[in-house]
Design goal:
Blueprint lengths: L19 E7 L18 E7 L17 H9 L13 H10 L24 H7 L3 E5 L16 E2 L14 E7 L31 H18 L1
Parallel strand pairs: 2-5, 3-4, 3-5
Antiparallel strand pairs: 1-2
């Protein structure tokens, strides 16, 4: 199902934590690895792709400046969500909410770098997938407000983490997090402009200045690189 988006931005996009996450499952026998065996599939593999600090500025959400053919093609084969709510308006508490399965404020982990101890009986959700037999990997950013508990959420969490390191026939949950769209990247200079800053479309409440246009164009350029 492909739906036209209706998206509400409550913060400027450079400060908004809007993780563009694509979650899809497929059984062994897919093109993901050459050694998969469909007969061994009992649980679906789960691949989680996320990128940082962007709003709905991709083609499948109707952005006129977007150049995102890969994401758009995936959207045509999957589901596009019309509405989204941010669990927190800043990065680490939002990531903490996702990994813990509860609002960060519910266990005093809403403040940045709070390093909260997890309550007894509470674990990050990949731990439960590991208990179910999954091989869980994270490549590679964590940035949670929890201190690590006794139960490890990941089999691997590093720049080299990969589902291919699992045992034969073992289902996987694999996170690949792309940081090239982080808000800090719009300040990286020098930058070779691809989108012309003079033609970029501004949200009505943004000032029409060369600086804003240059940053917005570079923001879209970073999204294009991510899509590639």
């Amino acid at each position: 199902m492909h739906c036209r988006s209706v998206f509400f931005e409550s913060f400027l996009v450079y400060r908004l934590v809007a993780i563009f996450a694509v979650l899809f499952t497929y059984h062994f026998g897919s093109t993901c690895t050459a050694n998969d065996n469909r007969s061994e599939a009992k649980l679906p593999n789960i691949l989680w792709l996320s990128t940082e600090d962007i709003g709905p500025h991709v083609g499948c959400y109707g952005d006129p400046d977007a150049d995102t053919p890969s994401i758009d093609a995936l959207a045509k084969r999957g589901v596009v969500y019309d509405y989204a709510w941010s669990s927190y308006p800043v990065c680490a508490p939002a990531r903490t909410t996702i990994i813990g399965g509860m609002y960060a404020a519910a266990n005093a982990s809403g403040n940045m770098r709070s390093e909260t101890l997890l309550p007894d009986g509470v674990d990050m959700f990949p731990h439960f997938l590991r208990e179910a037999g999954y091989y869980c990997t994270n490549k590679s950013k964590e940035d949670y407000n929890y201190k690590p508990g006794k139960n490890k959420p990941w089999d691997e969490s590093s720049k080299k983490a990969h589902y291919r390191n699992r045992k034969d026939g073992q289902p996987f949950f694999a996170v690949f997090n792309y940081t090239g769209t982080h808000e800090s990247k719009i300040r990286k200079r020098p930058h070779q402009q691809v989108i012309n800053p003079k033609t970029v479309h501004l949200t009505k409440y943004w000032p029409d200045t060369p600086e804003v246009r240059e940053d917005l164009a570079q923001y879209h350029d970073n999204i294009t690189v991510m899509d590639q």
